[in-house]
Design a protein that fits this description.
By secondary structure, chain A is an all-alpha fold. Classes of the chains: A mainly alpha, B mainly alpha. Chains A and B meet through helix 1, strand 2, helix 2, helix 3 and helix 4 of A and helix 8, helix 9, helix 17, helix 18 and helix 19 of B.
Chain lengths: 165, 513
């Protein structure tokens, strides 16, 4: 079985090559022009060629390294990583723009921060709830009222915005 | 000279107004906090705060960012010396001897020497910045598109060589950065590129969500992947902060050397403050009469590198102010500040906006003074920040990033970009890719493209006409040295290793004649 870092390298190499090929072929659709009058595709094609070559070379290197190390060899991974936290926080960052227009700022911030606190400290649910509520209200007051950032407003936001005159 | 004095006086008059003093103070405090916190470096702080500078004027924003950059260098040394935790990369070297000094009860002296050395370095580098930026900006006014193309390309070449890690990986990151910068409407022809029909993408990929994702969110993800542990904080008494006469005598020349060395290293593309600390450490060890003390608590090993990293910050501002080209990721953030305030960075900036230039320079002096006055008495308070639990701090940082990105364009696409680049940044770090070349290439990329296309137009399509201009050729030759010299050294070492075997040895059989 291969080590996780080796698998990660292979995934990265594959994604980079796919991105490079997509960029190169999309670049070919643009007008390249001539050296005297370079078109909008001039630089993208040059960068595309270089990118495909480098990404291809990187892929070969990663796969050759894996072969040389032997398939049965497991690379050391060190201490266990908190993957739940990594995925949870990434999911929260993706979730935020998805629900922002529907739930508006306060509810979205409350839900997202509650999940983030929960992901990092699963046992402290009440504490997470309390902290999320505090964080959503205080961040709204700081950013919207103090710093003048335009945030999506619903009735809750309007209430807090006009609180205290 | 008279002009410089007049400009500086005018700068002080503006920088000493309450609002700008407030920005300098906030920047210094925020910088110190980010320097203290492991993981969140000045880059992360700048990325997070970039969007909030919209409510300030350009000068205020520049003052804030200069304070953050300097403050982070100060703050990083505190945790390195007291806890053996480098708050940011430029403080790694300080850990070696600084922590040893703290173990021997001389932590206070190490902190004081590092603060005084940093102040000295800050002052020297600001003087250097003043003269070098003015001179270079004057020269740069005579540059054409070919020269700017050469500077951009050479900057990226040097960056690839000096960033560290794999050459191929750095090159890929630079190419990806330039590729991302080409998304959107090509402003020379007005044709859309790589937009896939999206109206939002036609405006291009904004630098802000990418930078905040790659430095802010990725930093959070890297921090939360490790187990949480609480630091035991040692108290430092005020009277312990005073170094003895022998320590002063040994440390001040080292700080002076570090300051000069750091400023010149700061002019080079790449993570200059980090490189400066290593170069200073090595040179101090070579110059020392007691090199055996290095690694066991030599005060020169704290003073030199600490001065060098602060001085490199001033040096890094030179290419930005004079040429409008950022050579370090932190300077890319400062460039971002200028751009979001509608200012065009370049050699004309100092001429067109002398107030901004001189006020920022003056505020750097003030910021340095504030840092030395604030940091020494408040060391215990700053160190206590390390005790804020990670599970509270990290969600707060994520939320600040999200609101920061949203506040600029109120764009959902930007928020998706933030999340995607956050994860991509984290993943790339895990497989050994550096994010800095990508960000710098994204900033310098459009300038390289425009300059090359304009230069080719002017030269009638002749590449020789672009590359064989005196300045361009000199720059390309200098940049090629970064590849030739390591190769030559490698070959020299190889031949030297072979030489002892040669005499009297039959090459084919390996037997003695």
């Amino acid at each position: 079985m291969e080590g996780r870092s080796r698998v990660n390298e292979k995934i990265t190499a594959a994604i980079l090559l796919a991105f490079s090929l997509l960029y190169f072929f999309k670049g070919l659709n643009l007008e390249v022009g001539v050296p005297k009058n370079p078109g909008p595709g001039f630089i993208p094609v040059i960068i595309g060629i270089l990118l495909v070559s480098c990404a291809g070379f990187y892929m070969v290197r990663v796969f050759r390294k894996a072969d040389l190390e032997g398939k049965g060899k497991r690379t050391s991974e060190g201490e266990k990583k908190n993957y739940a936290a990594i995925l949870g926080i990434t999911a929260c960052a993706i979730l935020f723009p998805l629900v922002l227009e529907t739930l508006k700022f306060l509810m979205t911030t409350f839900v997202v921060s509650f999940f983030m606190f929960l992901v990092l400290k699963p046992k402290k649910r009440a504490f997470a709830l309390f902290l999320a509520a505090g964080m959503s209200v205080s961040s709204f007051l700081i950013f919207s009222r103090l710093l003048g950032v335009a945030l999506p407003m619903g009735f809750l936001e309007a209430f807090f915005f006009h609180l205290g005159g | 000279m008279w002009e410089i004095g007049q400009g500086l006086l005018g700068g002080f008059a503006t920088a000493l107004t309450p609002l700008y003093l407030y920005y300098a103070l906030v920047g210094a405090i925020l910088g110190t906090i980010t320097g203290v916190l492991p993981g969140l470096g000045p880059l992360g702080a700048m990325a997070i705060l970039l969007s909030f500078t919209l409510t300030m004027d350009a000068t205020g924003a520049m003052i804030l960012f200069a304070g953050i950059y300097y403050g982070a260098m100060y703050g990083g040394s505190t945790t390195s010396i007291l806890l053996n935790i480098p708050g940011e990369a430029a403080s790694v070297v300080t850990c070696i001897d600084g922590y040893q000094m703290a173990q021997r009860g001389r932590g206070g002296a190490a902190l004081a020497v590092s603060a005084v050395g940093s102040f000295m370095a800050g002052t020297i580098s600001i003087i250097g910045l003043m003269f070098a930026a003015l001179f270079l900006a004057d020269v740069a006014l005579r540059f054409g598109p070919a020269e700017f193309f050469a500077i951009g390309v050479c900057g990226l070449i040097l960056l690839v060589r000096l960033t560290g890690g794999s050459l191929l990986q750095s090159l890929i990151m630079i190419l990806v950065g330039i590729a991302l910068a080409t998304v959107g409407v090509d402003f020379l022809s007005g044709i859309e590129r790589f937009t896939f029909g999206s109206v939002e993408l036609s405006q291009g990929i904004d630098f802000l969500p990418v930078a905040m994702g790659i430095f802010g969110i990725a930093e959070v993800l890297t921090t939360v992947e490790q187990k949480e542990f609480q630091q035991k904080v040692k108290k430092v008494r005020l009277r312990e902060l005073l170094p003895n006469q022998r320590e002063w005598k040994r440390s001040m020349p080292a700080a002076l050397r570090g300051s000069i060395l750091g400023f010149f290293i700061g002019l080079i593309p790449g993570p200059s403050p980090v490189i400066a600390t290593f170069v200073s450490y090595v040179s101090e060890k070579r110059l020392s009469k007691t090199p055996e003390e290095f690694g066991n608590g030599a005060i020169e090993a704290v003073a030199g590198p600490e001065a060098a990293n602060n001085s490199a910050v001033g040096g890094a501002y030179v290419p930005l102010f004079a040429l409008g080209i950022p050579f370090t990721p932190a300077m890319a953030m400062v460039l971002g500040v200028l751009m979001i305030h509608g200012l065009t960075p370049g050699p004309n900036l100092i001429k067109d906006k002398p107030d901004l230039f001189w006020t920022v320079i003056a505020s750097m002096y003030i910021g340095n003074f504030m840092l030395i006055v604030l940091n020494l008495p408040l060391i215990n308070l700053f160190v206590r920040i390390l005790q804020v639990p990670k599970h509270i701090l990290m969600p707060v940082i994520v939320l600040i990033c999200i609101i920061g990105v949203y506040s600029v364009n109120a764009s959902q696409l930007d928020l998706f970009m933030l999340a995607v680049f956050g994860f991509v940044g984290y993943f790339l770090r895990r497989v050994g890719f550096q994010a800095a070349p990508l960000i710098l290439a994204m900033v310098i990329g459009p300038m390289i493209e425009t300059s090359l296309r304009q230069a080719l137009n002017i030269s009638g399509g002749s590449l020789a006409g672009v590359t064989f201009r005196p300045i361009c050729l000199t720059l390309f030759i200098l940049a090629s040295f970064t590849f030739v010299i390591p190769l030559a050294v490698k070959l020299f070492k190889k031949t030297r290793r072979r030489k002892p075997e040669d005499p009297g040895k039959d090459r084919k059989t390996g037997m003695m004649e």
